[in-house]
Design brief:
The structure holds 2 protein chains of 2 kinds.
Chain A lengths: L1 H12 L3 H20 L3 H24 L4 H5 L2 H6 L5 H30 L7 H25 L6 H28 L5 H30 L1
Helix pairs in contact in A: 1-6, 2-3, 2-6, 3-6, 3-7, 3-8, 6-7, 6-9, 7-8, 7-9, 8-9
Chain B lengths: L3 E11 L2 E12 L3 E5 L6 H8 L7 E8 L2 E2 L2 H8 E4 L11 H11 L4 H10 L15 H14 L4 E5 L7 H16 L3 E5 L9 E4 L3
Parallel strand pairs in B: 3-8, 3-9, 6-7, 7-8
Antiparallel strand pairs in B: 1-2, 1-4, 4-5
Helix pairs in contact in B: 3-4, 3-5, 4-5
Classes of the chains: A mainly alpha, B alpha/beta.
């Protein structure tokens, strides 16, 4: 509990915290019409998908240094020498990241996609998808951040590791939203997305803890 | 909890280079050991190996409680403090926020953190952000965690280097009190410790 509070405070304050990711997200949404042309028909088609991609990228932006700072200033030693297992520590860090950075982004997602011309009716589904997807992004991104610990050019490594892990939630989430727009069944996509995020939350802490131990030794 | 530490035939290899081999020593409750050695002799690595953060190339580290051998994971998670070169303090948080977190995290309470703040003469600094503190003040804040969360084994890496003479004496009293209560201290130092200590020199 003490750890969750600290991580929330840190995630909130880290380099502009969620504001930076949100600003990045809004910037991308503003630039898209300029790049793709302002015609509403075209924007309406790409809006949900691009909002979704922007969400994935802005999550990555705030995740890169999730473990790096604790590693550099010695706090990771302290976190490792506690009654609580390191796996739990990693899970709490990602959870705090989800609450502090993922949730504000998810709240922004329906706003952005509607502003880009997507039908208002899909806003609730976008919100749910973004919330669940951000959970998956937080945990898989945390795995990338842990694996890149202590390496030079860690940021590049994070992007390379995380790319294939980010692909399934993007496909499932965008698929569910597309199916909803087309009037098809959207539940399978959403359920797959939930399954992916929960599996990530359950499995990646073990890999993250192993990566942290490896980086410490 | 930990009543003694037994190190047998320990050997460490870092980055393909052998630091030392065949190191054996014991540490009993109430005893302090001053670990000396040239730069790069492996003092820090030895402390980290005892804390379980580095896997030794060979040898054995055992923790004994009053009732016999302890589970090493358990003993390390609850029974030791490691204070390294890096204080593990976040520069953007206040001294009090960091100390209270570290105390809670390592098994202390808010009240004990407040007490430690008093013991180490940190009360005036409580509301300052860590980045505003001097090196000596930061070290005192890090040392406060040892007092705030009682754990028997202290592994200290150059604990006194940035402290002034008065604060060294102050921390010496805290160390003496810890030893009196059955604590164990292993400290890597270049200057003598302010408490009576057995010497252990690392030679390659």
């Amino acid at each position: 509990m003490a750890l969750l509070r600290r991580e929330l405070a840190l995630a909130w304050g880290r380099g502009g915290g969620p504001l930076l990711a949100c600003a990045f997200y809004v910037t991308m949404a503003t630039l898209l019409p300029l790049a793709a042309g302002p015609s509403p028909e075209r924007l309406g088609v790409v809006a949900p998908g691009s909002a979704w991609v922007a969400l994935a990228l802005s999550t990555l932006l705030s995740l890169e240094r999730l473990f790096e700072r604790d590693f550099e200033d010695g706090a990771l030693d302290l976190l490792a020498l506690a009654p609580a297992p390191l796996e739990l520590v990693c899970a709490v860090k990602c959870l705090a990241q989800w609450i502090a950075a993922g949730a504000p982004l998810a709240l922004l997602a329906p706003v952005v996609s509607v502003a880009l011309g997507a039908p208002v009716a899909i806003a609730p589904l976008t919100l749910v998808c973004a919330l669940v997807g951000a959970l998956g992004f937080a945990f898989t991104g945390g795995l990338g951040a842990a694996l890149a610990l202590g390496s030079r050019r860690g940021g590049l490594l994070v992007a390379v590791i995380v790319l294939p892990l980010f692909a399934p939630p993007v496909i499932f989430g965008a698929g569910a939203i597309d199916a909803y727009v087309a009037g098809l069944g959207w539940t399978p996509g959403l359920l797959l997305l939930c399954a992916y995020s929960l599996a990530a939350a359950a499995l990646t802490p073990f890999a993250m803890a192993a990566a942290c131990r490896n980086a410490l030794s | 909890m930990i009543a003694s530490v037994q190190v047998r035939d320990l050997g460490l290899v870092r980055g393909g280079r052998r630091l030392f081999r065949g190191l054996s020593f014991g540490l009993q409750a109430g005893e302090a050991v001053a670990l000396t050695g040239a730069n790069g002799a492996g003092k820090t690595s030895l402390l980290r190996a005892l804390a379980g953060l580095i896997r030794p190339a060979e040898g054995h580290v055992g923790f004994l409680g009053p009732a016999g051998e302890l589970d090493p994971e358990e003993a390390r998670g609850r029974g030791l403090h490691l204070l390294g070169h890096h204080d593990g303090l976040k520069t953007t948080r206040t001294a009090w926020e960091e100390l209270s977190f570290q105390a809670l995290w390592t098994g202390g309470t808010e009240a004990s953190a407040r007490g430690a703040m008093r013991d180490l003469d940190l009360e005036r600094l409580a509301e300052l952000e860590v980045r505003m503190l001097s090196a000596g003040q930061r070290r005192r804040l890090a040392l406060a965690r040892l007092v705030a969360a009682p754990r028997p084994l202290w592994l200290l890496d150059e604990p006194l280097a940035p402290l002034d003479a008065a604060r060294r004496a102050l921390f010496g009293e805290l160390m003496a009190a810890h030893l009196k209560g059955g604590g164990l201290i292993l400290a890597a130092v270049h200057d003598p410790l302010p408490v009576p200590a057995r010497a252990l020199e690392l030679v390659a």
